[in-house]
Design goal:
It is a single chain. This protein is an alpha+beta fold. The chain has 2 domains: about 40 residues, Orthogonal Bundle (GTP Cyclohydrolase I, Chain A, domain 1), CATH 1.10.286.10; about 130 residues, 2-Layer Sandwich (GTP Cyclohydrolase I, domain 2), CATH 3.30.1130.10. The chain is built from 7 helices and 7 strands, in the order ααββββαβαβαβαα. The strands form 2 sheets. The chain has a 5-stranded mixed beta sheet, sandwiched between helices. A two-stranded antiparallel ribbon has the order 1-4. Helix 1 packs across helix 2.
């Protein structure tokens, strides 16, 4: 995992991950809710949670756009669509998960260069591994495809269930939130946009 903290705006972490500080914070949280962090079942919990958070928030220390820099000259200027990419992220308001699927489609730039299909999944995964809101996550993926690949058209649709709605507050398990980000030709051409949305819904 890269922890090179520069002025790169794609890498939002302000400092390297601090395992010891994270463990201490989890221990304090257990005390704050009235638990005994020294009892057998919780003794290793601060370390486990700190290790888990290192993985869950790994995207804070990485530049997701780096995965897009390797491309292939295929002279392809038609739709590329990857559907049903599983994503897991963490709501920045309550620090509980939201999860679902992402659909990512783009028409390559005029040079016809395409990125590997797995790179689209990695791009979504790396942006998701941050404290997030679904709306921003959707926009970040779309903007990366425009800015790095110079894609002519981009559409990103994300469908997620948010546990902050399911397990607390309004308590509506099963409710799904759908967000979209549309760029370039798909934004300006209603027929093209409708066509790609029909592929996503198939």
């Amino acid at each position: 995992m890269s922890e090179n903290h520069t002025d790169n705006q794609q890498v939002p972490a302000r400092a390297p991950y601090d395992q010891e500080r994270a463990e201490a914070a989890v221990r304090e949280l257990l005390l704050a809710v009235g638990e005994d962090p020294d009892r057998e079942g919780l003794r290793e919990t601060p370390a486990r949670v700190a290790r888990a958070y290192r993985e869950v928030f790994a995207g804070l220390h990485e530049d997701p756009t780096e995965v897009l820099h390797k491309t292939f000259a295929e002279d392809h200027q038609e739709l590329v669509l990857v559907r049903d990419i599983p994503i897991y992220s963490t709501c920045e308001h309550h620090l509980v998960p939201f999860y679902g699927v992402a659909h990512i489609g783009y028409i390559p730039g005029k040079d016809g260069h395409v990125t590997g299909l797995s790179k689209l999944a990695r791009l979504a995964d790396m942006y998701a591994k941050r404290p997030q809101v679904q709306e921003r996550l959707t926009q970040q993926i779309a903007d990366a495809l425009v800015n790095v690949l110079e894609a002519q058209s981009v559409i990103v649709v994300i469908e997620c269930e948010h546990l902050c709605m399911a397990m607390r507050g309004i308590r509506k398990p099963g409710a799904t939130t759908t967000t979209s980000a549309v760029r370039g030709g798909f934004k300006n051409n209603a027929a093209s946009r409708a066509e790609v949305l029909s592929f996503i819904r198939t």
